[in-house]
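stage 2 :: seqdesign
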């Protein structure tokens, strides 16, 4: 009864986690092998309402120009300020002149590779956007699911008496390789 329940749970978890794990795997390959992501950059000038603070300006630009992202730190420049709106796969650098409302937009788009790369780095459950928080919950579920997947797999393997020797050899080899790599990376 317990074995059958764990077998079904193990299968369902594996199927649910497959795409999240594959996204992490692809982005890890991209980062480990330094596959360069070349952004497509476009620049334009628009006129916004003069004398706005940064947050209302960002809102106006999002509504009128279709921009999106989380607002970064605001830096003063002559006559105005600069800040970035960042999102997975790109972002917009905004330079604003308070007096005239002239706004320079530098939009960069890194495509699917950039999205996967940024998803690999996003963390936490207290982001500015609901979608990033949803990703945080997805990663939390995937992390806990991996523990359950590993635990159920070890339990089911242990219940199969004919497979114990091969499983012990594989688990032992995995432990040795992991410890050697962890030690080597610390040196």
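stage 2 :: out
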């Amino acid at each position: 009864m317990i074995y059958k329940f764990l077998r079904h749970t193990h299968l369902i978890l594996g199927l649910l986690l497959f795409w999240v794990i594959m996204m992490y795997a692809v982005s890890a390959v991209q980062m480990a092998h330094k596959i360069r992501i070349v952004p497509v950059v476009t620049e334009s000038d628009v006129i916004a309402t003069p004398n706005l603070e940064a947050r209302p300006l960002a809102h106006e630009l999002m509504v009128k120009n279709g921009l999106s992202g989380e607002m970064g730190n605001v830096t003063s420049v002559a006559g105005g300020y600069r800040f970035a709106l960042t999102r997975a796969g790109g972002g917009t650098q905004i330079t604003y002149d308070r007096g005239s409302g002239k706004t320079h937009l530098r939009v960069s788009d890194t495509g699917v590779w950039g999205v996967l790369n940024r998803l690999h780095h996003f963390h936490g459950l207290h982001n500015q956007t609901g979608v990033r928080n949803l990703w945080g919950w997805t990663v939390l579920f995937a992390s806990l699911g991996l523990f359950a997947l590993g635990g159920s797999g070890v339990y089911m393997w242990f219940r199969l008496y004919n497979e114990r020797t091969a499983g012990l050899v594989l688990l032992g080899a995995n432990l040795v390789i992991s410890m050697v790599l962890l030690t080597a990376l610390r040196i």
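stage 3 :: structure notes
- The chain has a mean pLDDT of 90.
- The longest strand covers residues 40-47.
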